[in-house]
Amino acid sequence: MPLTPLDIHNKEFTRGFRGYDEDEVNEFLDQIIKDYEMVIREKKELYDRVQELEDKLTHFSNIETTLNKSILVAQETAEDVKRNADKEAKLIIKESEKNADRIVNEALGKSRKVALEIEELKKQASVYRTRFRMLLEAQLEMLHTDDWDDLSQSREEEEEETYENI
Fold first, then answer.
1. Is 59 a member of any domain?
2. pTM of the predicted protein model
3. Quick one: pLDDT band at residue 148, thresholds 50, 70, 90?
């Protein structure tokens, strides 16, 4: 068991023949007592400081552990979000490709239909043009015949007769 300052203070030495100077020994012991008290006080302060630092270290270790766990959870969550976003992007792309194919197919179908309608209209226009030409040619042919002259004369005669009868 270590000595206390009180133990040093109360220590009595036996006196021998021609021993040490008592005042000098007492002064030296007083100095030892002061130094020893200071060492004990410093030791207690250092012990308290060590305890405080150990408590802080424990606290910060707990915070570090919590932060590490939080970082791991955040990383896992980020990876999950990334995987889900990739899946969703692939689904969107697939759906867009389907829609694009459908739209292209519909447009091709419509363009084919329009092309057929255009061809049909060209045929009808050609037929109409041919018929109209034939009609005009027939009409011109009729104008070039002598029948018109005969019709004109007979009509003039009819008109003359109508005027005469009036």
1. yes
2. 0.44
3. low
